[in-house]
Amino acid sequence: xxxxxxxxVAGKFYTSIKAELLETLEKFKSNHKxxxxxxxxxxxxxHAGYMFSGQLAFDGFCRLDKNVKNIFIIAPTHxxxxxxxxxxxxxxWETPLGKVSVNKNIQEEIISxxxxxxxxxxxxxxxxxxxxxPFIQFNYKDIKIxxxxxxxxxxxxxxxxxxxxxxxPQNAFVISSDLSHFLKEAExxxxxxxxxxxxxxxxxxxxxxxxxxxxxxxxxxxxxANQKNFSLIRIGLTNSAKATGDNSKVVGYGSWFLFEGxxxxxxxxxxxxxxxxxxxxxxxxxxxxxTEINITNYMPYPPILDSxxxxxxxxxxxxxxxxxxxxxxxxxxxxxDLIKNAYNAAFADPxxxxxxxxxxxxxxxxVSLLSIPxxxxxxxxxxxxxxxxxxxxxxxxxxxxxxxxxxxxxWEQLPDKKLFLNSLKQKxxxxxNYFSKTxxxxxxxxxxxxxxxxxx
Length: 456
Known about the structure:
alpha/beta, 20 strands
């Protein structure tokens, strides 16, 4: 006889009436708007009541691969602490939409290979798994689930499970987590923005568990992305005040999907025309007499542009440089950095007079999206030269409060590594033959977006 996990938060976190639940999910579907055309095998989605975070969770599930056969739902516990990863010894989970089967073979394998345990008590009052199941039932006809609850010290074990089962393209992962809890909205936004930055930069150093109730599985998926050189792409950030109007004690929500590549690669592939359009709108706004640029004038734009990014904006007229300004380190949302650098390249590059309307009609625009710079360790100048990859690496050098940067595009003018480095030294204010034990060098890569006869 099958053991069935009956719902315990139906009627609380979501309606217990099938017709009403289907109507709610259909409403989420009709409200779903996405700039993304990519299907992932791992998502992070919130697990609050549907009135608070249901739309954002649904938007996350819309990015989950529809061809998978097994979905791991990995969530924190809210009512009973566990000292190990816990699985529920049920054959099926039930919601008002019906029953969904558990992949018992995978569960038994997890028990034997990873030393996890069955603990039905941990699931008895838990909502973080259950609220995800109606989304799965709505989007999949033939699917099995593997519900997992994690304790506070299980990042490494959770990471091992993700790595082991991700190899099979039939497996997908849902990380169930809300963000900050019960802060004033302004403080919640500040904390949630920090959390988003850490997730998107794949750097969880200093991450505090109060930043997200599902901190353990979030950290595990983020480290998996880091090891595989994948990226976590933002779907959206919001909080409960949007639903309640009460900004005194809010809960934060966020959603991301895993992209099997670099974030800037994703932006270049999907949003190059949008990037160029933002640069043009910025320059045109100034030429039209606007003294203040409001970000709402650029909406709608994809949520990925709200994640931190660094870029250079380059303007050329008849293949001759007409302005180039940029940021080395990501310190603000990419859309803000793009607007600022577009304005400065056109009107505040000290090498050129401000751009005129007549010149605007003639210029070509390119944007370089910079990766996070990585320190190059070297013994001497020859060692440094041997490690530099021509036509691939952008290089930064720093010493004695002086620094300079060359984008990878500079290799077209300086293809010799020695001449490239000597010229970069001169740009920083050093002699071409300068070298010291304290000089530092960093490499970065760029994704290069160039205007392709887009309409001005």
